[in-house]
Amino acid sequence: MPEPRELDGAVAGRHLRPYTITGGRTRHNHYHFTLITLVVTRSPDVDHPHLTPEAAQILELCRHRAIAIAEIAAHLDLPVSVVKVLCGDLLADEKIIVQAPPSQSDRPSVELIERVIDGIRQL
To answer: Which pLDDT score, from 0 to 100, does residue 114 have?
Structure first.
């Protein structure tokens, strides 16, 4: 098996145990994210040298456009649970803005969608 690749003196995230990256946390205490919660960096032009490498990678990835939690995990090759914890920390530090998907009560009813479809068919 090949040796882990070094990135700026730190071992790539996928070679560290997830509990090491999150400090033993499996979920964030204050925030709940879904797989499709969108994340964007609050101040794209600000550097954050004191962050962990993984948190800095999240900020860089979300610097110019909103990206879903699942997509961040895929890009960084990290478990989704780790990305959720890190995003919770970044949100608590006001470094990111998140947009959660609409709740069940905010979604249009099936009846409304069917009426719209029927209206379109009549055109």
So the answer is: 92
